[in-house]
């Protein structure tokens, strides 16, 4: 277990965000912050699914390519992908070439389009926000699932989403501020504005 790490700049950060500069930039500017719009939410959901079994740094380094080949995560465009597109993506060395995850990304885009009739992906995801956010003091206290992430996973699977297990959905909830899992003492804790008393 580890608590916040003081960087060379004198700033306290979550341990994972205190090393590699790509991780540090993501930690300091994006992780735990709400995003705007359907495409941004679909992007985070898709990338979290691709991350399964890999390091997040791998995904961050490949994110520009993911954005390019998945049309900026425009659900309408990705929902129209066919077998030829799958083969194209499987031959693309700049992304994670996993057929199951690629198929899931297309299925999730189609499910996102269909979900618009029920209010849309953004409202659906945020409807699983808990009443309180965790307040981990060290990495040993950080959860990997929650009752809400389990419920979200089940609800998404029921309406056609794939590769959205409880752990992946908890990572998504952390990434977009549905929960604030910056460690107590990290300079980013409470920065999302979602949890005003999360310090």
Automatic annotation (TrEMBL):
Sequence positions that bind Zn(2+): 14, 27, 182, 186
Alphabetized SUPFAM superfamilies for the sequence: DNA-glycosylase (SSF48150)
GO biological process, one term: base-excision repair
Listed Pfam families: Adenine_glyco
The keyword Ligase is annotated on this UniProt entry: no
Keywords: Metal-binding, Zinc
Gene Ontology MF terms: DNA-3-methyladenine glycosylase activity; metal ion binding
InterPro entries registered for this protein in UniProt: Adenine_glyco, DNA-3mA_glycosylase, DNA_glycosylase
The protein's name: DNA-3-methyladenine glycosylase I
Species whose genome carries this gene: Nocardioides currus
Lineage: Bacteria, Bacillati, Actinomycetota, Actinomycetes, Propionibacteriales
């Amino acid at each position: 277990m580890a608590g916040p790490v003081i960087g060379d700049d004198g700033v306290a950060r979550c341990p994972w965000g205190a090393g590699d500069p790509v991780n540090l930039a993501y930690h300091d500017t994006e992780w735990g912050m709400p995003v705007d719009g359907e495409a941004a939410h679909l992007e985070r959901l898709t990338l979290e699914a691709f991350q399964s079994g890999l390091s997040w740094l791998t995904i961050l380094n490949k994110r520009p390519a993911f954005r390019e080949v998945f049309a900026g995560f425009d659900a309408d465009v990705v929902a129209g992908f066919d077998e030829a597109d799958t083969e194209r993506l499987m031959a693309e060395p700049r992304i994670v070439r996993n057929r199951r995850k690629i198929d899931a990304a297309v299925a999730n885009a189609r499910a996102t389009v269909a979900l618009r009739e029920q209010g849309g992906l953004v409202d659906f995801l945020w409807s699983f926000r808990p009443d309180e956010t965790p307040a981990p003091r060290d990495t040993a206290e950080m959860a990997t699932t929650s009752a809400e992430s389990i419920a979200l996973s089940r609800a998404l699977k029921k309406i056609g989403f794939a590769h959205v297990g409880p752990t992946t959905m908890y990572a998504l909830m952390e990434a977009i501020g549905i929960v604030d899992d910056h460690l107590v003492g990290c300079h980013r804790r409470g920065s999302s504005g979602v949890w005003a008393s999360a310090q």
